[in-house]
Amino acid sequence: xxxxxxxxxGTTKFYGEIExxxxxxxxxxxxxxNFDTIxxxxxxxxxxxxxxxxxxxxxxxxxxxxxxxEWNLLKKNLPKSIFVxxxxxxxxxxxxxxxxxxxxxxxxxxxxxxxxFPRNYPSCPPKLYYxxxxxxxxPNLRPGGKVCLRMLATRYERIxxxxxxxxxxxxxxxxxxxxxxxxxxQGLFMCAKPYSxxxxxxxxxxxxxxxxxxxxxxxxxxFEDFVKGYFRKRAHPIxxxxxxxxxxxxxxLRIIELFTNLYRALxxxxxxxxxxxxxxxxxxxxxxxxxxxxxxxxxxxxDDYVEDDDVDDEEEGDDNEExxxxxxxxxxxxxxEDVKGGDNEEEKKAx
Length: 351
Prior knowledge:
It comes from Fraxinus pennsylvanica. This protein is α+β, with helices and mostly antiparallel strands.
């Protein structure tokens, strides 16, 4: 490998006396753009067969020209926490992922949405579908995939939203854009306490952890490289946040099971996380039966997590050893980069 050639199979970084090899996963992640156009939409796109005649939308048509304007707007104004993929053969489709913001129960999570531009766009707003994985994460993001935004709502839905004091901008064909929609969606995740009680806010974080597990198991197509690379970088902050949130939690067995599944998912993704098992060792069951069950989680195998494990154990062990070298036993969340850059300065100060 030529360390001076960026096109070689790997890139070598030097930190003092430590040599760190950038593997293929990290390399692909670092090359992943906030906005990109690819030839064809993925087979798992929600709206792929929604309108069979929509594939005839041409760039030269009025709708095609409007969508191109939207693309240009996104290229120039997308925040670093939103990633978008559009498609040459289906310009009426789009897929986005939003990163959960700091200081919220959704921090570190990845939330995916599919978008469809109807033929009468922008007279009518775009249609959205949220990849919920069957989880009831947020009052405005339903398990069936419905996104409840005033901007996209019918008159009846707006009345309901007003009743619950959900005030957001309405869709205006002359001024609204898909960028406004993305900001509105992002706003659903910006609340530090989306629920009125700490119990429900912790539940929101639990569900975010569940989504992390599900996204790692079934990453939406076109985002596989991003998902793998992102969670390799965020594995330690996620587990540290979990330990802080649920230290001393009374419902220990449920929390232990969730932590174990989360830990195994992140380890299988290629991050060495063994030192986080001290969290399990610090918890003792209130009864002998609970203690036996927790010992099973702590010392048991991976069979209850991996349903179709086609990965050789020795190869997985080798991957863990590669990641082990740059992880200190007392992991400091400040040392882990946020997404593709440094951690948020305000977040560091808060910690």
